[in-house]
Structure of Hexosyltransferase:
Amino acid sequence: MAFRRFHSLSLPIGLLSLISTISFIILATIAATTAANARLSFTRKPSKTLPVFREAPAFHNGDECTNAPVHVAMTLDSNYLRGTMAAVLSILQHSFCPENVYFHFLWSRYDEDIYTNIKTTFPYLRFKIYKFNSKKVRGKISKSIRHALDQPLNYARVYLADMLPMNVSRVIYLDSDIVMVDDIEKLWRVNLEGKVLAAPEYCKANFTRYFTNDFWMDPELSKTFTGRNPCYFNTGVMVVDVQKWREGEYSYKVEEWMAVQKQKRIYHLGSLPPFLLVFAGNIKGIDHRWNQHGLGGDNIQGRCRSLHPGPISLLHWSGKGKPWLRLDSRKPCTVDHLWAPYDLYRSSKHTLEE
């Protein structure tokens, strides 16, 4: 067999150098393209059940930031993931020290698609995911006026202190249907004044309507508020002293009222009333600006509502109506357009320009 002989060394030195340079450029380009395509295929791999999100920009600390962490806890659920992504973006975007924010996510089961979505949408996010054991509330949940309120994950906030690391002594719990429009560190620095938790109180709300007539007519049950001035507060935005919660065994105290509810129907609204029974009248009330709640309307029809007067630091679409669903249906409420700029859903026409 004959072999062709190549006389590469007979080429002029200048031409040989040029060929080498071109070859290097071509190989580098191929390698870069391959890496980019690999990254793109990973970050944009479509899920069969979940929406695909755009990658959020990286947010960095200001010059005066320290390394003091701000702990935030939220739940992860496929039905509310779009809301969670918008909430996280709003927190980071308005934080002066975004790299200090550490997220603690709670989910009821491992979901690779959800995990991938978080990692690819927020590549630099500091977070940890914890599995909430739904068996903790098995047989303890009573049917409420809205199916979403009956989900076990809705009760995960009761067990936060059991799941978070022991070195976490304070945490901000947030629902997934919120948007932060202020620096979260301001909320983090709230002085709890020895209380277990802090939240905006609404003392003008009709507190009696959160419980049934059977509750108020039972002298033993209704006397639980004796010596307190109970006011309604929303559990979707809370600053919690985790250490005091553990020491006071408050998870058990909330569970006790859930057990009473199973025996005698004393309320209708999921996980909120047992919190009120344990804490109402004994929390640190903070400015209403930290929970402009009720933007999702009522729990039955989700009718549109306008903003309450006064300054706003946090918008909360509590209630049946969720902004992403109303925007997609092309029947949004006016307040939903305040949520739209934080929507990272790739197919959304309401998001910020890339």
